[in-house]
Automatic annotation (TrEMBL):
Heterotrimer of A, B and C subunits. It comes from Deinococcus phoenicis. The active site is at 52 (charge relay system), 127 (charge relay system), 151 (acyl-ester intermediate). This is Glutamyl-tRNA(Gln) amidotransferase subunit A. Residues 103-114 have a biased composition (Polar residues). One of its GO terms (molecular function) is ATP binding. Residues 103-130 are annotated as: Disordered. It comes from the Bacteria. GO terms for cellular component: glutamyl-tRNA(Gln) amidotransferase complex. The gene is gatA. Allows the formation of correctly charged Gln-tRNA(Gln) through the transamidation of misacylated Glu-tRNA(Gln) in organisms which lack glutaminyl-tRNA synthetase. The reaction takes place in the presence of glutamine and ATP through an activated gamma-phospho-Glu-tRNA(Gln). It catalyses: L-glutamyl-tRNA(Gln) + L-glutamine + ATP + H2O = L-glutaminyl-tRNA(Gln) + L-glutamate + ADP + phosphate + H(+). Keywords: ATP-binding, Ligase, Nucleotide-binding, Protein biosynthesis, Transferase. Its EC number is 6.3.5.7.
Amino acid sequence: LLGAARARVEAARALNALISLNDRADEQAARVQARLDAGESLPLAGVPIILKDNINVTGTRTTCGSRILANYVSPYDAAVTERLHQAGAVILGKANMDEFAMGSSTESSASGPTLNPWDPARVPGGSSGGSAVAVAANLTPVSLGSDTGGSVRQPAAFTGIYGLKPTYGRVSRYGLVAYASSLDQIGPFARSAADLALLMNVIAGHDPRDATSLDAPPAFHAGTPDDLRGLRVGVIRESLGGNTPGVEAVLQTTLDALRAAGASISEVGVPSVRHAIAAYYLIATPEASSNLARYDGMVYGERVPAPDVAHSMTLTREHGFGREVQRRIMLGTYALSSGYYDAYYSKAMKVRRLIAQDFARAFADVDVLVTPTSPFPAFRRGEKTSDPLAMYAADVDTVAVNLAGLPALSVPAGFETVDGMRLPIGIQFIAPALQDERLVNLAGGLE
Ligand code: GLN
């Protein structure tokens, strides 16, 4: 399995999906073989997997797509890494990503952009673009990314695969490099609902090392069309309009398929989601400014030397962080500063509460909510790099879910042809907290 996966990685080099290869993979594979020979049964025996480069694996680099961590080698395994090893998976390598998971296109990595296999002139989405391409281009059957505001679901949509953002707390964040801790969640990419279920049953579960971890044992399985009968599906009204014709058409065919299988469809208002982008960027950037304060060249990563320590820290951060990361640290520091805190951060926290309440109200009448994952298919490389607000707006359909801590799944649902290129479209299903299983079940029913 490992050899075949390596050959595919080699063939797909031009896509720039990976930052590094795990040179302990053979050793790990041999250990899995020994366990199999000893009669152990392993749910992911020998399955090669790729992890986003913000998830720690002992003895391998964790760069977060940043120059500041270019040579940082992790001394420990993330909780998900441990669980994958325990299940017999073999970590093949680490995937490219937007620097510190800040972005929607995988263009801001210090390792260069990742290309979309459907059209190399287009982005794969982000920030987990490398992990998405690893699965979409068949380098490995499954991979892991992280989703703070859409970074698993949006690249899944742009590359035509599944991407799940679990309920906040279902997958341990121990060993995931923090971006915005109250929003971050590790999530899987897969090409089938069955693979998604298999992987979630391995990576989800309680971990005392993550103070926000929930004790909810995973019980995932892919459903059948029978499971769709009687399902109450609510289309979020605020997500209609503003989509490309292809996205609208794919949403309609998905609703038709659900109806044909016996689900009931209604339209539901979640009015506060209109403020989700503003609230998200006023919550994510303050958390990021605090989390990234640790990269000063003293403990982690690169250091630019200077005669005095303060100057060295300044130069290290100036040289080590890219433009988008610097912009967000400044935004976040500003929003937290005395005199502005009430107007920005504390206001955003109130909007966050409203969004959670609106979702709770909507779930009184429906089992799942549905929206497009993105208002458009994959955009061209360079199209939004000089316009940060346009890049932020790409997350319009995904960030509210993180603010409310809910689980959501992007399902590959169709295509739109743009300039002669066939581009995948994703549809997002959202469930109440801890009902992640319902999403994977539904996805199986739609296959
Ligand atoms: N695009 C969003 C951001 O830049 C989401 C990123 C993510 O989910 N990691 O913050």
